[in-house]
Amino acid sequence: MRALAERFREILGDDGVITDPVRLRTYECDGLTVHRATPGIVVLPGTAEQIAEIVRECNAARTPYIARGSGTGLSGGALPRADGVLIVTSRMRRIIEIDVANQRAVVEPGVTNLAISQAARPHGYYYAPDPSSQQICSIGGNVAENSGGAHCLKYGFTVNHVLACEIVTPDGEITWLGGGDPGYDLLGAFIGSEGTLGIATKVVVRLTRTPEAVLTLLAAFDGIERGGRAVSAIIGAGIVPAAIEMMDALAIEAAEAAVGCGYPEGAGAVLIVELDGPEAEVRHQFERVETICAEAGAFELRVARDDAERAAVWTGRKSAFAAVGRISPAYIVQDGVVPRTALPEVLAAIDALSADYGIRVANVFHAGDGNLHPLVLFDDAVPGEGTRAEEVSGRILDLCVEHGGSITGEHGVGVDKSRYMTKMFGDDDLDTMQLLRCAFDPMNLCNPGKVFPTPRLCGEAPGVRRGVHPLVASGEAELF
Amino acid sequence: MDPKLIDDCVHCGFCLPTCPTYVLWGEEMDSPRGRIHLMRQHVEGTPVTPEMAGHFDACLGCMACVTACPSGVRYDRLIEETRAVVEREHRRPLAERAFRALVFATFPRPRLLRALRGPLRLYQASGLAPLVRRALPGPLAAMEALAPELTARVRLPRLVRARGPRRAVVGLLTGCVQGEFFPQVNSATARVLALEGCDVVIPRGQSCCGALSLHAGRPEQARRLARRVIRTFERAGVDTIVVNAAGCGSAMKDYADVLADDPAWSARAAALSAKVRDLAEFLAELGPAAPRHPLEITVAYHDACHLAHAQGVRAQPRALLSAIPGLTVVEVPDSAICCGSAGTYNLFQPGAARDLGDRKAANVLATGADLLVSANPGCTVQITSALARRGREIAVAHTAQLLDASLRARPARALLRGGRP
Ligand SMILES: Cc1cc2nc3c(=O)[nH]c(=O)nc-3n(C[C@H](O)[C@H](O)[C@H](O)COP(=O)(O)OP(=O)(O)OC[C@H]3O[C@@H](n4cnc5c(N)ncnc54)[C@H](O)[C@@H]3O)c2cc1C
Ligand code: SF4
Ligand code: SF4
After folding, report:
1. Where's the FAD-binding PCMH-type domain (chain A) (predicted)?
2. How much distance in Å is there from the Cα of B82 to the middle of ligand 1?
3. Does any ligand 1 atom lie closer than 6 A to the CB of residue A199?
4. pLDDT in tens, B135-173
5. Rounded distance, CA B196 to CA B400, Å?
6. d(Cα A154, Cα A138) in Å, to the nearest integer?
7. What is the CATH number of the domain that holds B305?
8. Which end of chain A is more exposed for a tag (fewer CB within 10 A), N or C?
9. Is A212-323 in CATH node 3.30.70.2190?
């Protein structure tokens, strides 16, 4: 490690290499603090060339390396290793180009999601995917996690808005993915790969025209049940809102405590419905949404009249995760997906779990696409509560899988959920994914130990499974 | 460092983009989240290392992180406790210690500060320690440049009577730096209050409010100064104490916390804190009575951290200014990011202070405004000296001075003269 640090100092200067133990520890975790490990070395590069050199040095020393953006990930994807190097992009935050004519922007990986929208706004554009962490999460992290947000119901996830990436491959080469070249969609494979297929060093994103009109409705219901009915009815009517978000009573309580968002009193659930697009269409559809909500039993409908009121409606929702800190000493943010139609059933089951275990669960979710974010609350000072909360959190994922959903909607697998991968995929599926991973990273040094339960197949990596992979045996795939 | 307060941090990182040192250096250890992590390390048994102390020292105490934090982390209290721990447990190099001692002996004493202006200049020239040499020329030179002639000292009466029907009786804090270097702001404040129907009581012999000591990990000195201020204003017998310097106002609102553990004083401190209002905050609560005359001018409003972040006063000054006919308020880009002044920060962390000053200067110039409104003397000094480094000048005035000009039908020209506040 010491020799490696010396080499890094030559590449980056003293200022870009951290080896002091106290400093190193501040990088021990991302937004998911239950997993911690102090990195061996932290480097703060400024250019793609520097990252390429760092990766080559790591390869030569057989040392694992892990990319980190802003460290807001919620699945431990950027969890460091004591025997590894953490490559942090927080100094690579230049917006290289806002190309209005071609509706795109070229940015460095450490640029925050929101900074892109802010730079594009004067031109009448913005960057559509809007994770709640948008003011701080990096675009590199977004690419790695294929992050989404409230408005992805209509506009799609990161993968729909990234046109190309310059990456440093695990071989230490700089190359471009995407850009509409014929052949395999390698960019598609890279997006959502959680930092296991290389490090993004430039990202070309699509800019979306700011809609002509935006209308936002806050509907208050006595409970989740009725709110859920409204959601189904809206989608059933063929309306595609920009966003439909729901929060339950506990989540509302937290947001109220944090930001005083002033949601209707006594609401057991609130629904935020936002429509955007051409003025006339939005107005027309908005009326229908209002009617539908009223018919579903909304006891109060509030229309945001201007940007300030709209922002007020959204602050409550966007701060909900962090706000839960106000009503509970500790909590787990879960992320799962269920088919929209299964929502009421799954929510009832979560309620039952919560009662069984004596663990409170607050619910915040992207109701439009069935992406749940149950917040499992506990007090780590009470012996056993942490474990019970963990169990509840795991059981919620079981529920999602049982109902034909997924163990993650947008926060990724990371270290936290790798053990659940076997619940969704069989050995053959996982092995096939490993083949892809090995094609990019044959030495298994690029963010190893993430996503997959146990490393298999890759060259010398220890395998629990013996024998030849069926795809290799049949000649359909080969090991690189 | 209260572990409970540390535990409130959920490590979400929402505070990072508004933290000036994170904006500058992009390092976790120099972000609020990282600093709280360092505090946790200390609470869990890691001694204060020089590296750790360095990251705490580099914190401006701007409290932008408090505004940004959705979990309600009391970083203000955490850093205050932490600074005291650093002062107790960390032994600084000799030159640094000497320099700090000099600054803390000087700043909280208005009269000494004034008397030392000349000698300090000499000391500067002598180049005793490299640290001193680096630190002094910037901010102190700027103070020299900005300060009115020594003879031009304005002496405020003990009582300024309300014009027209009396609506309130208020006390006015004159402040050390404000009083010594920007006395014209204090006279404008007193006039505006009087024109709006307030009897203004200005107690003699006011001491420093203790803000600098409090924010530098010297709680004993801070408590001593706080007790004096409390005594002074108790004697004044006023319901409200109006403060026109952001840093002083935020410190005085904190007296309740500062003296919470002192049984003889806690109740008195809480009572005093409850009376403190920033000038803009107070005028907004009071509502306008005096007629406003037009000022044809475009101003950029600068958010002083100790006003915007520490006291949550953002809307009121903007509203007061916008209500002046003819006046246009424009926003400074990245207004939530500190200008780098931060009390004594530009003395102890000159590099970072300069970089932040440069950024602020560029953003201020980008507005194209005729005049910059700044409600904190430290910010005024910092921004003007940053502009001067670029060979630029902008007139700077306090909210009070604009209101004063409008209420007294003075021309906007008078405010713009010579680029001085
Ligand atoms: C309060 C809160 C709310 C959130 N809300 C949402 C939400 O609404 N929607 C959502 O999708 N997510 C959300 N997240 C999760 C998180 O913000 C996203 O996953 C985000 O994309 C992570 O970005 P980051 O820069 O913090 O990445 P990090 O946490 O630093 O890293 C995440 C992963 O990306 C990899 N990585 C980072 N940079 C690169 C790079 N340049 N090249 C390759 N790999 C890289 C890392 O190795 C790691 O695996 C939320 C998080 C928090 C704390
Ligand atoms: S007080 Fe200011 S400088 Fe200090 S951590 Fe908070 S935001 Fe950063
Ligand atoms: S915003 Fe608050 S909770 Fe989040 S990291 Fe910063 S201090 Fe901690």
Report:
1. 35-210
2. 30
3. yes
4. 444 445 555 544 444 435 567 889 999 998 999 999 999
5. 12
6. 22
7. 3.40.50.11810
8. C
9. yes
